[in-house]
């Protein structure tokens, strides 16, 4: 990457903060937009609502090389998701069409857009037909990006865990385990790998292509929730109740990361074991 690239961050929460630590400042000029007034070292910040077309239009006039969209909803309703995801993406695509038609747009989405629930193996070729209203809004935001004239990539992350995202650890500490009859497949990814995947996409983007398309961001081991809980309990010295749960009774889906690994990315935390060991050690 011989020349500096201009990267615009729409949404500047935990993952983008981890991302900028992985980018060489000699190669990147960083600009950011977020609603609340919080500084990010090394990032020229603007503050405003990404759903406001005027705010986004002004930012895109700088013609960034790449633009990363990592948004957080105000609530778990369809209305909150439409305001926090769909409206900003629509505004960004419209502004990019006018001011930055070659800008690579990356949207962080979720594997919740896959409604599979019988233990199926899911990859980027699987059909996304969400049944939840919130996931439907995410898919509509993806479709708005795909319909744009810009190069685009969509990263569908599975369940993110890491520092500050330790809900499962807290439940196990309090012996709050899932009922054996409610076993389900789970998919997860450490927040450092989320940032690493996004850095990998940004650093390896080829402007002669249309982007990476859909990419699933998940670790290499889909696993039953009961197995994770039992392992965590053992690591933390907590008694785990006996269970005779069979894999055949498990619900949910198993997300694959074959395309990600084929792209050359190496997982920092290939499974929940590596990721949670560090979190347990810091408690």
Q: Explain this structure to me?
A:
This protein is α/β, with parallel strands linked by helices. The chain has one domain: Rossmann fold. The chain is built from nine helices and 13 strands. The strands form four sheets. It has a seven-stranded parallel β-sheet with strand order 3-2-1-4-5-7-11, with helices on both faces. Strand 4, helix 3 and strand 5 form a beta-alpha-beta unit. Helix 2 runs parallel beside helix 3, helix 3 runs parallel beside helix 4 and helix 5 packs across helix 7. The model has no long low-confidence stretch (mean pLDDT about 95).
Radius of gyration based on Cα positions: 19 Å
Low-confidence stretches: none
Oligomer: single chain
Number of helices: 9
For the largest beta-sheet, the strand count, sense and barrel status come to: 7 strands, parallel
Secondary structure class reads alpha/beta
Going across the biggest sheet, name each strand in turn.
3-2-1-4-5-7-11
Terminal-residue CA separation = 39 Å
What is the compact description of this entry?
The chain has 283 residues and is an alpha/beta fold. The chain contains nine helices and 13 strands.
Topology:
Layout: E1 5-10, H1 14-20, E2 28-34, E3 43-47, H2 53-60, E4 66-69, H3 78-99, E5 104-110, E6 118-122, H4 133-146, E7 152-157, E8 159-161, H5 167-173, E9 185-186, E10 188-190, H6 191-203, E11 213-217, E12 223-224, H7 225-236, E13 252-255, H8 258-262, H9 272-281
Parallel strand pairs: 1-2, 1-4, 2-3, 4-5, 5-7, 6-13, 7-11, 8-10
Antiparallel strand pairs: 9-12
Helix pairs in contact: 1-6, 2-3, 3-4, 5-7, 7-9
